[in-house]
Design goal:
Elements (H helix, E strand, L loop, with lengths): L2 H18 L2 H28 L3 H36 L3 H5 L5 H31 L9 H27 L6 H8 L1 H4 L13 H5 L2 H15 L4 H32 L1 H4 L3
Helix pairs in contact: 1-5, 2-3, 2-5, 3-5, 3-6, 3-7, 3-10, 6-7, 6-10, 6-11, 10-11
């Protein structure tokens, strides 16, 4: 293992040890995805039992699928920002950056922790969806992995933007770790099509990969037709937003280092 890979693994291992020794942290990871699934799953059951025909059943399936997939964005974003905040709260950020760890290695390490958190958090919810609602998330096939990956990357570049604000504003920006992803939910088109939004709001939704992912998901579930144009648009948007997130992260990190904020942040 090269030096860079060792440093990345060291940071990942540090966070894994924290979760290994704290069952409340593990419970919190799975709590929110499971709660969201139960709420939307019972709502879908109400639609399918109260209304007749196949349309309510398909709509309920789309609701359950949307709830599960949107949690990928939420867990991915919170996974990165919370891991970074753990370093601030423990007054460890300065120690990390006087070590040989490079900023690029942190950018690789934190999403790795986030991916592990996301998998652990969604696993119970996926099992419950199958047992309670007879919904198999992987029934559409390998294309679901492309949806997963796009939503995971979206959560990561959002998190890089929030971490950049933490570099800039310190602990005063901590609340953004829990509010940003929830705040864009109305324009992410998780539970309804893009056409449901007002005309002036649709361009904002189209600038987000999530809207294209969920449009493609509904097309696949409701008509058994995969709209590859939506998935392609989501992939390109993610690439552009990720490059922007990395650039902003790098710029704010350099500014924080010049100001000495890496030592004082969080105080």
């Amino acid at each position: 293992m090269t030096g860079g890979a060792q440093r990345i693994w060291g940071l990942v291992y540090r966070h894994l040890c924290m979760y290994q020794r704290s069952w409340p942290r593990l419970a919190e990871i799975a709590y929110w995805p499971t709660l969201e699934l139960l709420i939307w799953g019972f709502t879908a059951n109400f639609f399918s039992r109260s209304l007749h025909g196949s349309a309510p059943i398909l709509a309920g399936t789309a609701l359950v699928a949307g709830a599960l997939l949107w949690e990928i964005v939420l867990r991915a974003q919170i996974g990165v920002t919370l891991s970074f905040l753990e370093e601030i709260w423990s007054r460890n950020l300065g120690h990390i950056f006087v070590s040989p760890l490079r900023p690029a290695e942190m950018v690789l390490a934190l999403p790795t922790v986030s991916a592990i958190r996301t998998f652990i958090g969604l696993l119970p919810a996926t099992i419950i969806a199958f047992l309670l609602y007879h919904y198999d998330l992987f029934a559409p096939g390998p294309v679901m992995l492309l949806f997963f990956l796009n939503l995971l990357v979206m959560g990561w570049w959002m998190a890089l933007g929030i971490v950049s604000l933490l570099f800039c504003y310190g602990s005063g920006a901590e609340a953004l770790a829990w509010t940003v992803a929830f705040g864009i939910t109305p324009v992410a088109c998780v539970s309804y099509p893009l056409a449901s939004l007002p005309g002036w709001l649709q361009p904002l939704a189209q600038a987000l990969p999530a809207a294209h992912v969920f449009e493609g998901l509904r097309s696949l579930l409701l008509s058994s037709h995969m709209n590859w144009n939506q998935l392609t648009a989501a992939t390109w948007l993610n690439a552009l937003w990720m490059l922007a997130g990395i650039a902003v992260f790098g710029a704010e990190f350099r500014r924080a280092r010049i100001r000495g904020a890496l030592i004082s942040i969080g105080e």
